[in-house]
User: What shape does this take?
Amino acid sequence: METAPADGLIAASWLLIALPLAGAAVLLLGGRRTDRWGHLLGTGTVVAAFVLGLLCTLQLDGRRLDVALFTFMSTGSLDVRAGLLFDPLSALFVLLITGVGSLIHVYSIGYMEHDPRRRRFFAYLNLFVAAMLLLVLGDNFVALYVGWEGVGLASYLLIAFWHERPSAATAAKKAFIMNRVGDVGLALAIFLMFAQLGTVSYDGVFGSIGLLAGGTVTAIGLLLLLGACGKSGQFPLQAWLPDAMEGPTPVSALIHAATMVTAGVYLIARCAPIYDATPTARTVVLAVGAVTLMIGAIAGCAQDDIKKVLAYSTVSQIGYMFLAVGLGPIGYVAGLAHLLTHGFFKAGLFLGAGSVMHAMGDQVDMRRFGGLAPHMKVTFVTFGLGYLALIGFPFLSGFYTKDAIIEAAFDRGDGWGYLLGGLAILAAGLTAFYMTRLMLMTFFGRPRWEPGVHPHESPAVMTAPMVLLAVGSVAAGFLLVVAFPLEEWLAPVFGEPEAAEHVVAPIVVSVLVTLVMLAGVVTAWLFVGRREVPVTPPVRVSPVTRAARRALYADAVNESLFMRPGQWLTRALVFVDNRGVDGAVNGLAATLGGSSSRLGRTQTGFVRSYALSMLGGAVVVAGALLAVTTG
Amino acid sequence: MIEAPDLSLGALAPFLLVFGAACVGVLVEAFAPRERRHPVQVAVALTGTLGGLLTTLLLAGERQVTAGGALAVDGPAVFLQATIAGLGALSLLMFAERSLDPARSAFVAAAAVPAGSPRDRELMTATRVQTEVYPLTTFAIGGMMLFVASNDLLIMFIALEVLSLPLYLICGLARRRRLLSQEAAVKYFLLGAFASAFFLYGLALVYGATGSIRLSVIRESAAAQAGGGVLLVLGLALLVVGLMFKASVAPFHAWTPDVYQGAPTPVTAFMAACTKVAAFGAILRLLYVGFGTSEWTWRPLVYGIAIVSMVVGAVLGLTQTDLKRMLAYSSIAHAGFLLTGVLGYGGGADGTALGVSGTMFYLLAYGLTTLGVFAVLTLVRDGDGEATHLSKWAGLGRRSPLTAAVMALFLLALAGIPLTSGFTGKFAVFRAAIDDGAWPLVVVALLASAVAAFFYLRVIVLMYFSEPAADGPTVGVPGLPTTLVLAVTVTATVVLGVIPGAVLDLAEQAAGFVG
Assistant: This one.
């Protein structure tokens, strides 16, 4: 597909990034003067970006447009240009980021109303939106990397927004460090591309990827996947995402559910030409997706913290998306469709959870909820719709997009296809289990509230975005799969959709998934709904529950495999550094400092010695010149 | 019979304007009532300088030799004249700042009154403002502009004196620490006279060897005398010494720290930015036009001097505790980096030198950053004037974050960190030197940059990671002039670092000498 220079409104699509960036700059530099209207400005820039993005998308017409911005440096072999790429894929992300972003900004006005640092919160959110838009709009890997680090920074700042809580500070650090591990992969992949191909632009890399040896392409693919795993909380780098729920709930909804954590899926979809060329790396993507899918679903079943359940659910759902894009051409569209619908219902669920926490005095333990349905009707209904969409209740969003992924898995046709499809169906059952458990523990049953808590519905500024997202959760699947097929919109990127030959008839898959889902719901009712929920978690539980509670020992594995050896290595290095390197460096510094003071003695302050030094210099200069020319 | 030389008034217009403004300034000093002099003088000086800048820009693209062959109008001349006029106008703005010093001006009210006398103490607190500094500075700016455009050695010498004499004077005009300031002026004057003598002697020897003071004639004659007459080579050496002195290149740098420290800070800024541009303009013209064909004679010389200058500047800067002195050594190190660019003799489009464009870009970027850094220095004050001792800056980041951030930006630019103008400038001159095979020099330059980065970063560390001192300085609120200077320099430092393409192209187009 040819890239054409951008025209019309799309030529101004850099404004998409510039608007929220300017918002962040004004709010951060403006200081307290902007306290009064800062949240309105922050929301305004994102809404404006959404409107602009919508208009640009309407003008796009399936083209692939290049927005040249400027040449940073152009010298011989090194040619660094900055530009944006506006194509159907990036348009999709622009709409998701700015659309969901706008709703969450509006919600935050209410949610953060009593926080003294609300302006700063909006500044960080704006910064995040700008960086995320740069990530999806850049036309080269360096721009993507800048955006990638930018969202990492914004995520760090927002997780630690309440940094006076030690748990928030620790969680932010954990997220930052685990992301760094992934980022090393992405950076190495970019270096490798530049070393091998001499370019980092998408066009340049994808155009000449066929020239590379198979091993190199596989290496690039695996390194990119490492980056994607870090950002998207995929196995083995999944442990930071649930901890990241220490941040304010709108952050969890926007960054750690709807947008940033899907950047890994974007990366792999964008790099489809690379993965098309390396079946090995693609298989690894598939495996990562399948493993994460199961880990997330199992861990989600035993959590008591409402946000952690949703977080593990996010991990698991992104696992679905990785599984889909790992399937290759038959899965890209299904994965992206699930990404979009997930953006709606998961953001809605988080906002609902935030609304519940708002009502319960920032309580997150579901064992302390119960019986909230009559007290918070709007929250209950919107949350319930999001819940139904997530578990794949027929004809809601998740039903369409999750089924598409499971079908695509079966369509592989081989034994792996059946295994992956089976796992995906099993995970759908687990999803239904833990989500039903969450619903029952929160909204039904006898109230187990802490004394002195009086639940109340949240203000309209919070419920309105929840309602809109609930509408999206209900309708998005139908719209994207049936009414306006995403396949056609994305055809310029991934090629024309082929009439797939189904190994297992879609109706069979749908019925099977629905039955497993219902089984999950019933099991949850048997375990949770019909008996009393103890306020303290029971101690005598099965080993499986214990493992699930500890998220399959991910933290323990990280600690024993990486943290402790890392600490030992650090200690050893510090020792070597102190004794060896520092010795050398300090010696060098001492030498330099010593010669500096010794040389400094020539600076006597007497004009006569200065003149003498000039004379000496002149004699040396003249002598040297004479020696060179006549000698 | 005397033939009138051809005079292109268009080409002379910048000089006429700047020197005209300086002369008008003298008249204003004589006739305008004292209380109205300051605004009038500022207006006259700025009008002249900005007019000079404008008329210079109108000359862009011209290539001619005029005024009887004494004056060159070509790319480098126009680019550097415009740079000098622009930087000069910004310096004048810093001179005109009246809201920082409690006595309303950085300059002494009556320079002739002995320091420390009862009359001096009386004037110390008076708000009388001295305005002679404006015509003097305008003369210096005019001299600098002539310096980079002079196509014969005698004009170059006259320009050298026109730019130097006012500088000697205004160095001694500090309102506070007057003895230090006067000492600086006398030192600068004595050593400057010494250096001028070198230049003049070199001029005489070259005239003796070639029979001409015209650079183009010297070029032909030097090419004919391949192998080099002793007279010519000695003459070249002495000319170079004279020019290197003005550019504060080691080993002719000894005056720099003392004078930078003693002079009033706006004057230091003016010297550091504009004199550097002018001196390097003259060095480029002398070496490329006058001795362009005998490149091999001066090449090893510049090579060696560049190394000495970078090393001396970087190493001596390490142990400085006074910011103005530290910046003086930084200026010496930067002179070495600039010489690296002078060596890039080939590689540009249409036979021009990549080194010329790189050096010119570097001069512009360095000049702007330096002005900015000194402008920040004028803000941070204690009871005794500007607080330039390093220890006073401890913890400034906490007390006044904006000032510290701006200072940090400038220091990063001086250290050559990417995304600042300093990086682009260094990149441009190093690339030119590498293209010409001078990579060992570039290795030395990179090592020197690393050493120099230490003392820049030390200030940043001090500002951000130290506890503020109990009796720390106050940060003044700048008036409109200094605010303007800071806004321009900050913007330029960032823009030339992030999107330098256009200006680099401009410098490359302007790299062709005439003559």
Observations:
- The longest strand of chain B covers residues 64-66.
